[in-house]
Design goal:
Layout (H helix, E strand, L loop, with lengths): L11 H5 L6 E3 L3 H26 L3 E2 L13 E8 L2 E8 L2 E4 L7 E2 L5 E2 L15 H28 L2 H6 L3 H4 L1 H12 L14 H25 L1 H6 L2 H5 L3 H29 L1 H10 L1 E3 L7
Antiparallel strand pairs: 1-8, 2-3, 3-4, 4-5, 6-7
Helix pairs in contact: 2-3, 3-7, 7-10, 10-11
């Protein structure tokens, strides 16, 4: 019942030296707002991006990606006799994906020959124009939100205090020990649970300073309008198709980050973790008795 009732204000002693079982303030309002705004924004951008991918279901390197150019990734359909199937082809290796990618059926049983199915895209019915509208509108939310979050995190020292990786934390032995503890599900308890470990810092830093900025830059490189006022943006990536490939690789990496993030939330205690990201209050896991 104590987890459901409104949290009581911690005593000064608890704030100074929190222990396992104490309820403490963990996430600032700016972090929570950016987290949930990003969650909705990235979901809409991913689903609208998959619809945009459906218009040309192949990824190439270089400047051009016409139908006769060799893609390093392709999703399509093919037929052997009367059997039609969907497939995913990566670097020349093809796996069948019938029902999921390339060849699938809608709720009415009508077969479709598009890369991603209706339930994974915005809009669900094929419309490149609508998908671009959704994608570009929320690209502004993502870009402005990221800029505001980074500036505010520098002002309140969130980056320096919580994400900065010290020289000691970069040591291979330290990283190895933390990776081993993670693999064995030895999650931190007590006050140690308030601090990001090195793996978390590396993951969050990669998202904040690499994946999201790269997504925005490659998105700009894909825009014909950018060619008019800043062609260097496309040239830096070696061509529009290379920028498109990097754009989707970043998107797939963010999906991977999301899957690992949700898995760790479930393993660490979903109610406590969710409450911390909604209200800011977090109950420290109790230390194990020796």
């Amino acid at each position: 019942m104590s987890d459901i009732a409104p949290p009581a204000e911690p005593s000064p002693a608890q704030e100074a030296h929190p222990q396992g079982g104490d309820l403490v303030k963990r996430h600032r309002l700016s972090t929570r707002l950016w987290h949930w705004t990003n969650a909705v924004t990235l979901l809409i951008m991913l689903m609208s991006g998959l619809m945009i991918f459906n218009a040309h279901a192949r990824l190439c390197w270089g400047e051009y990606g016409a139908n006769f150019d060799a893609p390093w990734l392709k999703i399509g359909s093919a037929r052997i006799g009367t059997y039609e199937y969907g497939y995913l082809q990566v670097a020349g290796h093809r796996v069948e994906t019938t029902g999921l990618l390339g060849y699938w059926k809608d709720p009415d049983g009508t077969p479709h020959r598009r890369a991603f199915p209706y339930w994974a895209t915005i809009p669900s019915a094929y419309s490149l124009a609508d998908a671009r509208t959704w994608h570009l509108a929320f690209a502004w939310v993502l870009s402005l939100g990221l800029a505001a979050y980074l500036i505010w995190s520098l002002v309140n020292r969130h980056i320096q205090r919580d994400i900065h990786i010290t020289r000691r934390e970069w040591r291979l032995r330290h990283v190895w020990l933390e990776a081993r503890d993670h693999a064995r599900l030895r999650l931190p308890t007590g006050a140690a649970a308030l601090r990001y470990n090195t793996l978390q810092k590396i993951a969050y830093a990669a998202v904040l300073f690499s994946l999201l900025p790269l997504m925005i830059l490659t998105g700009l490189a894909l825009s014909p309008g950018t060619d008019a006022w800043a062609p260097l943006v496309t040239e830096v990536f070696g061509g529009r198709q290379t920028a498109r490939s990097i754009h989707f690789l970043c998107a797939f990496a963010l999906v991977g980050f999301f899957i690992v993030h949700i898995a760790m939330v479930v393993l660490a205690g979903p109610f406590n973790e969710l409450r911390a990201m909604v209200t800011g209050w977090y109950r420290l896991p109790r230390e194990k008795e020796q």
